Amino acid sequence: SYRKGGYHAVRVGDQFAGGRYIAQRKLGWGQFSTVWLAYDTRTSTYVALKIQKSAAQFAHAALHEIDVLSAIANGDPSNSKCVVHLIDNFKHTGPNGQHLCMVLEFLGDSLLRLIRYNRYKGLPLNKVREICKCILIGLDYLHRELGILHTDLKPENILLFSSIDASKDPVRSGLSPILERPEGNPTSGVTSLIEKRLKRRARRAVAKISEKRASMGGTVEARKSDRNIDGIDVRCKIVDFGNACWAGKQIAEEIQTRQYRAPEVILQSGYSFSVDMWSFACTAFELATGDMMFTPKGGQGFSEDEDHLAMMMELLGKMPRKVAISGARSKDYFDRHGDLKRIRRLKFWSLDKLLMDRYKFSESDARELSDFLVPLLDFTPENRPTAQQCLQHPWLKDKDSTSSPNESSVEKVNVGMSNLKIKVGK
Ligand code: ADP
Ligand code: MG
């Protein structure tokens, strides 16, 4: 991938934008870009530098992303809406071509890492609540004020950030919620560690689901984790606007990452803001349980899509016939009665029962969480509550926290920070 049209190779100390930004260390990467921690010599702060691959289609995508990010930053000058802020953008010419670069505020680890850090046991519900509020503030801003759909909401695309301004000095503040150092490199032909991990995780989740399908009474280990995350100040921001679009200008038909994909996208019956609300519910479930809500896989005689629709119905009840037959692809999965063509026998297991039986939630916790989530998973997209309506839901009202902040866990979490070496070039 480090060739003409591909990634720009960066070394620690490399300078960008006429010397304004100095590369410190790699934070992560995606299909289209590498992201580096950089020091901004003009403002004496740390920033995230996203360097796009150089080929025309990547440059085109970056221009679109910059458009969206600019609208987001312009509409929120006080930077309080739980969405990542664009600080600057410029072009950088290197041996592989010209790369569009975005300078973003520096954030911490993703919620996926937080879930993993907590060993997939699910986060305490008071933390889930705090995180959900942040995500909803971000979605409400995007949807209602800007008319933007994110279309790829998932734990990986929500990053933690510190209430104390870690961008001033992420080392000495010791408060930037970075749980672990990033691993691996984007190397051509070799599956990255993160991909491998995600696959391993998906396999585990699939195994659990089939186990669930096999025995209705199956349970998992107690959901209490041995890691204490009470001391982490969980605030977060929505990132990765590479796939975002303005309502009414949707171009892509297939949107969203598989496990977070709404039924109307699978059926191709058109989509709007409510696709993000579906992904939000899947994300909230995952935060609370440590498991993905839906992990479909194709099988003998049926596709991944049909399995996905079957899983949705097993949890949420039968899809209304009108909805089932309304999409361009409905005929691939449903007969004219609105029944799945190839998966005939469904095992219904309601969300509150699942939370109690499988994840050992108390009856009241299970009922309250499912009261919050089930309306967001309405098969009729127009019936799903908006982010604004969700913010009013009783589940989000502050409850007495059963656990107090734990100092030792703060230290434990910050161990990774001591490895963060800042090198400022001349
Ligand atoms: P892509 O569009 O190529 O997928 P992303 O915007 O998702 O790129 O960024 C890739 C990775 O870089 C993220 O998963 C995250 O680990 C890291 N990253 C992105 N933005 C930031 C940021 N503002 N602060 C810290 N890390 C970031
Ligand atoms: Mg990404």
From TrEMBL:
<dbReference type="GO" id="GO:0050684">
    <property type="term" value="P:regulation of mRNA processing"/>
</dbReference>
<dbReference type="InterPro" id="IPR011009">
    <property type="entry name" value="Kinase-like_dom_sf"/>
</dbReference>
<keyword id="KW-0418">Kinase</keyword>
<dbReference type="GO" id="GO:0005524">
    <property type="term" value="F:ATP binding"/>
</dbReference>
<dbReference type="InterPro" id="IPR051334">
    <property type="entry name" value="SRPK"/>
</dbReference>
<dbReference type="Pfam" id="PF00069">
    <property type="entry name" value="Pkinase"/>
</dbReference>
<dbReference type="GO" id="GO:0000245">
    <property type="term" value="P:spliceosomal complex assembly"/>
</dbReference>
<keyword id="KW-0547">Nucleotide-binding</keyword>
<keyword id="KW-0067">ATP-binding</keyword>
<feature type="domain" description="Protein kinase">
    <location>
        <begin position="21"/>
        <end position="396"/>
    </location>
</feature>
<dbReference type="GO" id="GO:0004674">
    <property type="term" value="F:protein serine/threonine kinase activity"/>
</dbReference>
<keyword id="KW-0723">Serine/threonine-protein kinase</keyword>
<dbReference type="InterPro" id="IPR008271">
    <property type="entry name" value="Ser/Thr_kinase_AS"/>
</dbReference>
<protein>
    <recommendedName>
        <fullName>non-specific serine/threonine protein kinase</fullName>
        <ecNumber>2.7.11.1</ecNumber>
    </recommendedName>
</protein>
<dbReference type="InterPro" id="IPR017441">
    <property type="entry name" value="Protein_kinase_ATP_BS"/>
</dbReference>
<comment type="similarity">
    <text>Belongs to the protein kinase superfamily.</text>
</comment>
<feature type="binding site">
    <location>
        <position position="50"/>
    </location>
    <ligand>
        <name>ATP</name>
    </ligand>
</feature>
<keyword id="KW-0808">Transferase</keyword>
<dbReference type="InterPro" id="IPR000719">
    <property type="entry name" value="Prot_kinase_dom"/>
</dbReference>
